Amino acid sequence: MTKITRVGVTFPPELLKDFDAIITKMGYESRSKAIQDSVRLFVSERKWLQEEADTEQTGIILMVYDHVVRGLESGLTDVQHHHSDVVTSTLHIHIGERDCLEAIAVKGKASEIRHVSDELATKKGVKILKTVVATV
What we know:
Elements: H1 13-26, H2 31-50, E1 56-66, H3 72-82, E2 87-94, E3 99-109, H4 110-121, E4 126-135
Antiparallel strand pairs: 1-3, 1-4, 2-3
């Protein structure tokens, strides 16, 4: 059995109230399990930024952008084609009058995935970009 370490955490009252409401609706049986899952997600989201550049990873880049911005769609497509050794697939979804969502599957070295993510994130008209990866 894995050894468990107990820690104390302080929360602003409103944050804890919101957290408890969400985990209750989700069906968590304990606050500890929900906090462990939250920390695990935080670590996985941040760890890839610190991985060695040549670590093989796989994941998804999730991006919301304004398709009306001149030249943005072709710029996003150019980035993906330029990095076709890392980009394995793209799903495009129309989510509103102006907004589109793209889910871009990626696989390759951490440094290459970071480069693609950064290149896409800095394009004018990209509203949200989130990269989630795991070491293969």
